[in-house]
Target: Triosephosphate isomerase
Amino acid sequence: MRTQIVAGNWKMNNDLPETEALISNLKRQTKTSHAEVMVAPTFVNLYHAYEALRGFDIEVIAQNMHFADNGAFTGEVSASMLESVGVKTVILGHSERRAYFNETDEDLAKKVDTALKNNMRVIFCFGEELADRKSHNHKKVVETQIKNALFHLPDDAWKSIVLAYEPVWAIGTGETATPEQAQEMHAFIRKTIEEDAYGIDIANNVSILYGGSVKPNNAKDIFSKPDVDGGLIGGASLNAEDFFKIVNAF
Ligand code: PEP
Model:
């Protein structure tokens, strides 16, 4: 059975006191599902979050990292820095990184390699824009994003890859892909992995999360689809009660 994951991406929200308050609330929640739970605070609060959640069943993960091991990259953070504060999983390729910081598939392929070289797990994000869907080009766009960033990997690297399909038009907009649209794309992704490169075992074992305006009131329907293995949650992850309603929607 594939790992079910619900990961909260806090983005550039929450200073230290707000992070402490949110973590206190998270600790009061009860998990009734088997999903792995993760939260991604901003870099400056990672270590505090890691310490504060020590012993709790919530993994602290990073929102991004640089592809270089170290060096003259002012303002950037490396894989080994993340590891040194307890981080073992990193989100890469979020649409906001692609759109506002010009991250390309080529950059992301390098970031994936660096993360894996450092024994980290990657949550790799991708997804089409509204214009792609309107022109019925969405599958091609997604296929290209995945192939460019991931299809150079050897088979055994896939055990450290989690995919997150996040249609850009559904992120932070309140507009969610229907459960059927999510299922259709997730099944397509799995088929692409199986047929174009890696075979059925790898395709069946990779967890594919959905992201884009997942809320307590729609999570159950989305998670009920056979190829949806969890969610990457933005806005709703900033409220501990809402986030755990989503975690417990499995
Ligand atoms: C995201 O940014 O990954 C995301 C899914 O955001 P939201 O849940 O707010 O749409």
Summary: Strands lie at 5-9, 36-40, 58-60, 89-92, 121-126, 161-165, 208-211, 230-233. The longest helix spans residues 179-205.
